[in-house]
Specification:
about 5% strand, Cathepsin B, Chain A, mainly alpha, 2 domains, single chain
């Protein structure tokens, strides 16, 4: 038989051998031997897959064949952290929820405000007394003063719910009438006050908007859509108004105690950390 021919460069003709090609295949085979077992080492149990599929059904999730194993792994990692937390001695409990297929980085990108604003750190104008302050207070137990918890959905509008929740309680304490106010109006209309709809904002700016805009509509006439939209405010349908906005100085915990204990529930913002993503109940502590 004729000896093998070596090509001088470019692509090799079928049946020829290039210098170094045998070594190249040897390296590839070694890499394959190392990588394949590593990729195949993680196999979820049948019970874990059933739990994940039940969660998918509950939250109406669907994934393609490439995304499914990644989301399953993320879900099981979150589930393990929740179980470890709940087995410890903590003041609050965690549980699976609609965010359990997300990493915290994904959750943060989708739902949290990413740019700190200096107005939250400026000195407030709340003049507190020297006490005495109540040892504890729960406005839910004092009367019909607190609206049910709402869901902001896939929109970074937490600032609007903090605003309406505080204002709803203040109105109920003052008038005895508990309203459900329009977060969507704040999402759509408060941009001139350094708010950014589903991309975040601050309750202090939202209160300023309501004050100078001459009112906020109810949720029944301006329903929540969890997305940015054009402003549809109708002044004649406004049901809530703000006479003044009082800010509590940052880190003034006594000021917050007095405001809540002597006046009404307040609106505040804090930096969300990973374990708050699956908060269920109890007194949250970082």
């Amino acid at each position: 038989p004729a000896p093998p021919r070596f090509s001088g460069g470019g692509s090799a003709p079928l049946g020829s051998v290039q210098p170094g090609s045998v070594m190249g295949w040897a390296v590839l085979l070694v890499v394959a031997v190392v990588l394949v077992p590593a990729a195949a080492s993680w196999v979820p149990s049948a019970e874990e897959e059933l739990q994940f599929k039940a969660w998918m059904l509950q939250h109406n999730r669907r994934y393609g064949p490439d995304e499914y194993p990644h989301r399953l792994r993320v879900f099981l990692g979150n589930k393990r952290r929740i179980e470890e937390h709940n087995a410890g001695n903590h003041s609050f409990q965690m549980s699976l929820n609609q965010f359990s297929d997300l990493t915290f980085a994904e959750f943060k990108k989708l739902f949290l405000w990413r740019e700190p604003q200096n107005c939250s750190a400026t000195k407030g104008n709340f003049l507190r007394s020297s006490g005495p302050y109540p040892a504890s207070i729960d406005w839910r137990k004092k009367g019909n003063y607190v609206t049910p918890v709402k869901n902001q959905g896939p929109c970074g509008s937490c600032w609007t719910f903090s605003t309406t929740g505080c204002l709803e309680s203040a109105i109920a304490i003052a008038t005895g009438k508990l309203l459900s106010l329009a977060e969507q109006q704040l999402v759509d209309c408060a941009q001139a006050f350094n708010n950014h709809g589903c991309s975040g904002g601050l309750p202090s700016q939202a209160f300023e908007y309501i004050l100078y805009n001459k009112g906020l509509m109810g949720e029944d006439t301006y329903p929540y859509r969890a997305e940015n939209g054009t402003c549809k405010f109708q002044p004649e349908k406004a049901v809530a108004f703000v006479k003044d906005v009082i800010n509590i100085t940052q880190y003034d915990e006594d000021g917050m105690v007095e405001a809540v204990g002597m006046h009404n529930p307040v609106s505040f913002a804090f930096e969300v950390t990973g374990n708050f993503m699956h908060y269920r109940k109890g007194v949250y502590s970082k």
